[in-house]
Amino acid sequence: MIFATAGHVDHGKTTLIQALTGKDTDQLAEEQRRGLTIDLGFAWLHDSEAGTLGFVDVPGHARFIRTMLAGLAGVDAALLVVAADAGPMPQTREHLALLELLGIHRGIVVMSAADRADAQQRADCHVAIKALLKNSPLADSPVIPVDSISGQGLAELLAAIRALSASTPARSTEGHPRFLIDRRFTVPGAGCVVTGTLLNGRLKLAPHTQLQLAPCDRTLRLRGIQVNGQAVTEIVSGQRAALNLTGELDSEHPQRGDWLLATELAQTAERQTSQRLDVHLRVLPEQRIHRGTLQILTGASAVSGRLVWLQAPAGQQAPGGHEKHGGLAQLLLDKPVHVIVGDAVIVREPATNTTLGGGRVLDPQGRQRGRSKPEALARLQALCTADTASAALAAELKHKLEIDLPCFARRWNLTAPEMDALQAQHALVRLGDQGLSHSRTASATATILQCVRLAHAGQPEQLGIHQQALLRAAESRLSPETQTRLISQLVASGHLRRHGVILALPDHQAVLPSKDAALYHRVREALANAGLRPPIVGELGERLGLERQDMLAVMHRLQSWGYVLAVAPNRFYLPEQLDDLAAVAQALCEESTDGGFSAADYRDRSDIGRNLTIKALEYLDRAGVTVYRDERRYMRPGWQRAAANKIT
User: Fold this and answer.
1) Which residues are in coiled coils (predicted)?
2) Among the four 274, 353, 396, 519, which has the fewest Cβ within 10 Å?
């Protein structure tokens, strides 16, 4: 269990830890000369009853609040130190507020320097402490007078620490490992060493163990792990440790505030950082958040940013539109930081070096557009009470038609097996990266099939309905990619029949007028034999004995019924030939390094000529097969490959 000191400067925090552990945590010469804790100090106590106890000595001076917050990250409880001859001071109150804002609700109050106060002073200090703690999470914490020099009260304090340790639940070890760095130094013969806390998961030492450094996106190799000076092969969530690192190191990184993340997150490192955080924020009494530049602290990082209120509770909005007690807000940061749902944030006024408020992250990838819409606010309000990933997923399903499952897993730091278990628990249907409830999948499926059924009834001569027309008619409010995957699954399961981009019910039999039916069979044969370079309308008319205008009229009728596709004004393809055109594009995408291809690449592979290549590619864009971006084309998500997924 890890304890951190809190309290005003010169109230005896460092002396207290030395009395408990025998270690002086002021290791810097400047600290010892000034008698002032400047950087974080650490000490361990191996207790026969409580096991291994860690103590983090944090600065009490207002100038070192960021360092103090770095020490509080990941601790289980606090020792709030108040000098008996001085009583609560400004920094005592601020540290108490920070403990509450950071979610540290367990602790013990130490009335230090008991030898320097008489009985009346100690009694007055006790009353002041109780008044200070009233209505705070530490209101019921024991208050223990201690003289760290003589040892008076240390036995009672150790007994309270043991009791608190026994009643503190073990931390969950689920999720990918996230290690927060709070110090860096160089050890002769070892090189770069960082200390910090593993906030999530398990971190194992194995040959060639690699970690991703965020937010600067570098790959480092883990060479060793030590806990309290002893080499270990694994640490779990909540443990402090020293890590020996090698790799992409320089004078700037790693540094305090950086994160070491699991390699599973390396491919999406850019999504592991954010500059737009949706948060639930509580403003401290008698404070006011302005519209100017603020200091935002999360983990051990401090960045500049602005705050935009999204919603304030009814009846608690102060004049001028600033929420005084709590509400929904979005933090706009000047630099990206790594955060997940539930991480604490502190908002400070840099000019006066005061804490204004704090809260927790609801969504580390906040919306830029529509962030104040009623549906967006209702979702965030529901997430305020979701303290588990399962509860959050249930809330998301009530407010969103589809859930981006990889994005949800990143926000909550879930491993693949954990996300799979959550998906099964909520009985989600997975369509590509999107998850839908069974009821919404059934509703969207019924809508799609009904649209196809109506198309058949309205025009029985049609071969079917074009996929793009079906997407427009369905209006299921699902994304086009998700609807495309759902259609592909309906085809794979036999609920629909596909002719290229033309879709029909399995039992649909189109009825063409007799004259057109005879011509269609001859047109179909001519187009099928021509491959990817069909004859122009004039050439086709000559083969079938029709004038060009008559042939064009026939082709337009067949096009309106879905039997041919007008890729160019004078070039028509059979619907199933669209698959052949798409297959060329897909092969080029799979072979390229960036997953895309140019028009020249397509022309050379298909051998259909430059002009027809341009028309064919433009048609593939319109049909939803490819997307054009930066002079290259890419396959749209959900095309063809989605057919491999089955509805469950």
Assistant:
1) none
2) 353
What residues have CB less than 8 Å from 539, skipping those under 6 apart? none
Name the segment(s) of the chain with CATH classification 2.40.30.10: 178-269, 276-384
CATH code that applies to domain 2-167 = 3.40.50.300
pLDDT digits (tens, 9 = 90+) for 466-506: 888 898 888 778 888 898 899 989 999 999 998 878 899 99
Is the full-model pTM beyond 0.90? no
Which residue, 338, 329, 323, 283, is CA-closest to 306?
329
For residue 215, cis peptide bond before it (omega within 30 degrees of 0): yes
Q: Give the lowest-confidence range in 405-414, 513-522, 612-621.
A: 513-522
Whether 70 shows a pLDDT value over 70: the answer reads no
Q: Which residue has the tokens 């070491």?
A: 260
**Tens of pLDDT along 247-270?**
988 888 898 888 999 877 545 444
Mean pLDDT confidence for 192-208: 90
CA distances from 137 to 100, 167, 538 (A): 7, 16, 85
Instruction: State both tokens at 632.
Output: 């290259």
> Would the pLDDT of 343 be above 50?
yes
Topology classification of domain 276-384: Elongation Factor Tu (Ef-tu); domain 3 (2.40.30)
Signed CA dihedral, 11, 12, 17, 20: sign only: negative
Within 8 A by CB and 6+ apart from 426, the residues are 390, 393, 394, 397, 435, 437
Tokens 């003289």 belong to residue: 147
Q: Which residue has the higher pLDDT, 201 or 646?
A: 201
Neighbours of 63 (CB within 10 A): 10
Asked if 306 and 276 count as a contact pair (C-beta separation under 8 A), the reply is no
Domain with CATH 3.40.50.300 in the chain: 2-167
Architecture of domain 178-269: Beta Barrel (2.40)
Nearest partner of 501 among 640, 623, 644, 635, judged by Cα: 623
